[in-house]
Amino acid sequence: MTLTEVPAAEQEQRPDASSAASVPASAPTASVLVQPGAPGYTTVELDPTDDADKAAMIDVDEWAFSFVYPTEALENTHFVPEKGRTVGVRHERDGLVAVHASYEADLRVPGGAVPAAGLTWVGVHPGHRRRGLATAMLTTHLQRTAERGEPVSALFAAEPEIYGRYGYGLAARSVDVQLGRGVALRDVPGTEGLTCSLERASEDRHLALVADLLDRAARPGELFPRRDAHLRNYFAEVPDWREGAELRRIAVVRDADGDPRAFCLFRRKESWGPTGPEGTVRAGLWAAVDGAANRALWGTLTDLDLMGTVRLGGLAVDAPLLGQLVNLRSAKLRTADNVWVRIVDLPAALSARAYAAPVDVVLEVTDTVLPANAGRWRVEGGPSGARVTRLADGDPTPSGLALDVAELGAAYLGGIGLASLVAAGLVREVTPGAGAAAAAAFGWPLAPVCMADF
């Protein structure tokens, strides 16, 4: 689903932002359309700029996700599915009954970024389930992603049970946090010269600031769609999605020279209990470039008058805020699955990232959906990058690890250790000790996270 489809209380709101950095030219168009096996169904191109296709897409999405797309959302937000990247399935009698789309994006990886297809809007009408429509769409998506030359695909899974069978692996976990007002935070050097202002959020005043700080603070796992419509939607107002909360505000931390160091888009919602105010701060899109700015930001937002609770989601499992809490038990924490990654072009994907330690390992990979990835691959490199080569049949070089492409996707961002996957029985260690050595190289100092529900 897209950001613009979910009520504020459920998704208030996590980064779905365009990078301020320059990006490569647009990916080439793709033409593959895999047809369902069931009779009466046809996979078709959709044009999100066409009123009839747009209305049909929204109807399918409302059926698939059990929600109503408010009129104000159509009027006040950008409709973000992209022409040339949106595909559906039509039934001979019922019309459009399934849809999916992808965003042209860049995925942050250890040491850099890689072009990526952000899979989204995957939905099937409940009256047309179990007929192979999702398989046709996802196979279409992966083949078109390969055709466009995008080495990876990423998604947030509405139903995690589905996507592993198509080669997606859970590449990052995240933490949702609830804090009480005035929660004790540790002192951090460097906060003395920082100030935090509270302002009404404005696209005209704050869009460039938000884009710059998101780019500077991004970790591996962050997905940046190349169209700025995604980021602009964070400044849109849809009354139904506020659910009684105020209009969006922004907290901005600046240094003594006035340069921005952190921000958070947020809303407050008043509430009163028997003993007084019990309001809630709903923290949404945010970023901080260092620990001092992070401390200044949350020190302000956890001490607002008439508020009793601060809620924020999508934190990395090693987020600075968690380390700055004096008493971790004072927070209510929930760990969730975060972004899923699918390796589409194995040599391109593995050579696009850096490695935390020297690596020389042969990976024996299976991939039933994209057979070009299957085989034995030698990965040689280190912190400056890697060379990835396919070993010919009969090459005597021993394999280090045997794994499915889904497990390779899980390990790709450096947050899910290959050694832990070996311990779980999901990766087979062909050469003793290969799991630990590969884990040291594929790991990364900061845990990955994607704060975008796309």
UniProtKB/TrEMBL annotation:
- Active site, renumbered: 163 (proton donor), 454 (proton acceptor)
Please indicate which superkingdom the organism of origin belongs to: Bacteria
Where along the chain is acetyl-CoA bound? 122-124, 130-135
Pfam families, per the entry: Acetyltransf_17, Acetyltransf_9, SCP2_2
Query: What GO terms describe the biological role, i.e. biological process, of this protein?
Result: aminoglycoside antibiotic catabolic process
PROSITE patterns named in the record = GNAT
Q: Which residues form the N-acetyltransferase domain?
A: 44-192
Regions of compositional bias (Low complexity) in chain numbering: 17-32
Chain segments carrying region Disordered: 1-47
Q: Annotated Gene Ontology MF terms?
A: aminoglycoside N-acetyltransferase activity
Keyword annotations from UniProtKB, A to Z: Acyltransferase, Transferase
List the transmembrane segments.
Answer: none
Q: How does it assemble?
A: Homohexamer; trimer of dimers.
Write down the PANTHER family for this protein, in alphabetical order.
N-ACETYLTRANSFERASE EIS (PTHR37817)
Q: Which family does it belong to?
A: Belongs to the acetyltransferase Eis family.
Give the protein's recorded name.
Answer: GNAT family N-acetyltransferase
Which species expresses this protein natively? Miniimonas arenae
